[in-house]
Every structure is written in structure tokens, then in C-alpha cells.
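Appendix B: complex inputs.
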Amino acid sequence: DQQVKQNSPSLSVQEGRISILNCDYTNSMFDYFLWYKKYPAEGPTFLISISSIKDKNEDGRFTVFLNKSAKHLSLHIVPSQPGDSAVYFCAARETSGSRLTFGEGTQLTVNP
Amino acid sequence: DTEVTQTPKHLVMGMTNKKSLKCEQHMGHRAMYWYKQKAKKPPELMFVYSYEKLSINESVPSRFSPECPNSSLLNLHLHALQPEDSALYLCASSLRGNEQFFGPGTRLTVL
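Resulting structure:
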């Protein structure tokens, strides 16, 4: 049972445009959500997170939106840059838990 | 110091070998994690240490043996591995179980 789903395995965007990566979850006990970026042969890099008490969190070019009623979150990257090309993982954590549940990842390609 | 370090970067071992992976962080984080990641897949949790005690073992085979000598160090001892254990092994740490910060990983190949 996949509790965190990223339904788009890949996304291609032009440099300077907006990238929108989506993530859906099924577990109502998730209360903290994170996005990680991963380059090949490297460890994931933490990008941005959001608590379930908020619906938006912004950090520079990155904004995460959370829609609790729809059990959906998205990561917006504006403007997209070629260096943003990587695999993006959505992850979720249960209340008071220490385990992260990851989605399958979305390969973002930003074309110059 | 705001990073998680892992050694070695690459490791090739035979099925009869014994080797160890090492992880270190000096951020004062009290939770440390081992993950296994196969190509094009998300990280899979293996073990969690909280305050130097093993708190989660995700039914990992006994050929993988974790050890937490102190709050900054985490080891993963490997013995009698199988070729299907070849993967990227990631260590992570976190302060309060929220954001986990990952090391660069050890690329393990079992022949």
C-alpha cells in the first residue's frame, strides 16, 4: 500500500518557467511533509517542509502548498533553472513518529 | 559543522567478506538513520537510532548489523551479503525527527 504517491515520473520545463511537482497521500496521521532533491549518486538534499497546521511555506524560489482536505501537496519552483534538474522526492511523517514515508520521485528536467 | 559524512564513498566486497560503513555528524542530532536506495527508487528505511538506542529495525536481515558507538557516530556492519544487496546506503540524522539530513551515501557492490 503506497501511502505517498507521486504520479508523474517525469516533468520537463523550460528555463525561467514554473515547475510544479505534485504529491498525494492517503494516511490521515501524516502531519509533516518534506521535499527532497536528489542528484545521481548523491544523498537526498532537504529542500523545504510544511507542517499540517499551515497551507503554504515559502523559501526563495521554492514554495510548498498543502491541501489537507484533498490530501495533496505540491512544490512550485519559480523561476526554474537548469541546475534544478534532479529527482524530487516527497516525504511524509506521522504525528510523533520518526519514520519518513517517501514517494517514488519525479525526475525534473529544466531545459535551457 | 552542518553535514553528515559517510565513508567509504564506494565499496566492493565479496559474499564472504566482512566490512563496515561509517557515518558521522556533529550537529548534535539525536536521531540517526540507515537507508538503502536502489536506482530510480525512493530510500528504504532500515534502522533508526534515537539517543543511541535502536528504536526501529525494519525487519532487516541479520547480515546487516547496526551499531551506534556514541551520539555522533553510526556504523553498519556487513557480513555474508548477497549480490542483490548492492545499492546506495544512506545515513541521515535529525534533531527532532522532522527534517532528516542525508549524507552522500556509500555505493556498495557485492560480487
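The mean pLDDT of chain A is 95.
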